[in-house]
Amino acid sequence: MSGGRVGGRRPKLTVDQAALAQRLYDEREKTVQQIADMFGVPRSTVYGHLDKTKTVPRQPKKTVVTKP
């Protein structure tokens, strides 16, 4: 076998873009969807580039139940 590319597909985001995405996500400035829209990629791509060891899962917004 010869001539094929080594290492699989190229990443959709550059190293700089991935770093920016990580920072925006960590600082809660943008949602994953907003970051994906900025770079023109699907959300799954952004999730693939986020560092799982550093990211803190976002807590869902708590809905306040008011009793009558």
Describe this structure in words.
The structure is a single chain. The chain has 68 residues and is mainly α. It has a domain at 15-49. The chain is built from three helices and no strands. It has helices at residues 15-26, 32-39, 43-49. The chain is elongated, with a radius of gyration of 17 Å.
Walk me through the topology:
Elements: H1 15-26, H2 32-39, H3 43-49
Helix pairs in contact: 2-3
Tell me roughly what share of residues is in helical segments. Answer: 25-40%
Q: Give the total of beta strands.
A: 0
Radius of gyration, taken over Cα atoms and rounded to an integer in Å: 17 Å
β-strand percent reads: under 5%
The helix/strand series, from N terminus to C terminus, equals HHH
Q: Could you name the ranges where pLDDT drops below 50 across 5 or more consecutive residues?
A: none
Q: Per the principal axes of the C-alpha atoms, what is the gross shape?
A: elongated
Distance between the termini: 73 Å
Average pLDDT confidence is: 79
Count of helical segments? Answer: 3
Structural class computed from helices and strand pairing = mainly alpha
Largest sheet: none
